[in-house]
Amino acid sequence: MRIGFIGLGVMGTPMALRLALKFQLIVWNRSISKYPLLVEAGAEVADTPAEVVEKSDVVFTMLFDEPSLRSILDKDGFKAALRGKTLVNTSSVSVDFSRYLAGQAQEAGGSFVEMPVSGSKVPAEQGQLVGMLAGDPNMVDRIKPIVEPMTRAAVYCGPIGMGLMTKYAVNTYSITMTVGLAESMSLAQAQGLDIDAFGQVLNAGPMASPYSKLKIAKMINGDWSSQASIKDCYNSARLIKEAGTAADTRMPLISICESLYGEAMQLGLAGEDMIAVAKVVGGQCRPGYLGRDTAPSEDERD
């Protein structure tokens, strides 16, 4: 079986590398900077997204947003190449757009599976993502063995849309928790505490997790390299807020988070890790763990 992968950003590259361990892989990306890693892993590079589909049985997409997906869907030959193929979208998009993608695939004679993932760069590198699958149950059963190299669990959530709705709910927890952690660290910094000691207290407490330990270390060390970026969190917060409106439920915390991540975007922090929202929460960029301001590189924006 030949597998295609379109979109080699912060998440797409490690996901594709995991697939390359088990399958023949063909890839495409907007910029060429990520190709050497994939070629070294044995992947073939396509000239166009349509070529990926033509040479694959199953094609995964991990692109930033709906316009990015629409740009490849509308390219010459892409939809025609979907006949008899399965398109699996792992990107975070709206439910309406996911249903649109499913319709486009079906009209072309192909099939569609929705599979947003929970996890960031490190879990992606370790094959420890959680996939939230949605679509025809028989097609999902066919896809599950293929996603094993990327996931620690692949859970069937229901028809198209339910995978994304599940991710919205999961990300509500992770985003608000991240902002809470950033605010906690900001208060510690403002009070003049020993930040290393404060980090040790958090890491020893009942709320500690591999995720919190990673983010605490990044703040203490001033390491803003992206595991999941500010721009990704802002995009996710907007989608969650829209989902809350559609479901007629209040989302007070996510509304605040969306505002904070929006401010971080305006400050030029788009490519930095999501925990860099600490720079905004504190109201200013203080010395120490809030001290490094860097614009996102081309690779981080990709």
Automatic annotation (TrEMBL):
<dbReference type="InterPro" id="IPR008927">
    <property type="entry name" value="6-PGluconate_DH-like_C_sf"/>
</dbReference>
<keyword id="KW-0520">NAD</keyword>
<dbReference type="Pfam" id="PF03446">
    <property type="entry name" value="NAD_binding_2"/>
</dbReference>
<dbReference type="InterPro" id="IPR006115">
    <property type="entry name" value="6PGDH_NADP-bd"/>
</dbReference>
<dbReference type="GO" id="GO:0051287">
    <property type="term" value="F:NAD binding"/>
</dbReference>
<feature type="domain" description="3-hydroxyisobutyrate dehydrogenase-like NAD-binding">
    <location>
        <begin position="161"/>
        <end position="280"/>
    </location>
</feature>
<dbReference type="Pfam" id="PF14833">
    <property type="entry name" value="NAD_binding_11"/>
</dbReference>
<dbReference type="GO" id="GO:0016491">
    <property type="term" value="F:oxidoreductase activity"/>
</dbReference>
<dbReference type="GO" id="GO:0050661">
    <property type="term" value="F:NADP binding"/>
</dbReference>
<dbReference type="InterPro" id="IPR029154">
    <property type="entry name" value="HIBADH-like_NADP-bd"/>
</dbReference>
<feature type="domain" description="6-phosphogluconate dehydrogenase NADP-binding">
    <location>
        <begin position="2"/>
        <end position="158"/>
    </location>
</feature>
<dbReference type="InterPro" id="IPR015815">
    <property type="entry name" value="HIBADH-related"/>
</dbReference>
<keyword id="KW-0560">Oxidoreductase</keyword>
<dbReference type="InterPro" id="IPR051265">
    <property type="entry name" value="HIBADH-related_NP60_sf"/>
</dbReference>
<comment type="similarity">
    <text>Belongs to the HIBADH-related family. NP60 subfamily.</text>
</comment>
<dbReference type="InterPro" id="IPR013328">
    <property type="entry name" value="6PGD_dom2"/>
</dbReference>
<feature type="active site">
    <location>
        <position position="167"/>
    </location>
</feature>
<dbReference type="InterPro" id="IPR036291">
    <property type="entry name" value="NAD(P)-bd_dom_sf"/>
</dbReference>
<dbReference type="InterPro" id="IPR002204">
    <property type="entry name" value="3-OH-isobutyrate_DH-rel_CS"/>
</dbReference>
<protein>
    <recommendedName>
        <fullName>3-hydroxyisobutyrate dehydrogenase</fullName>
    </recommendedName>
</protein>
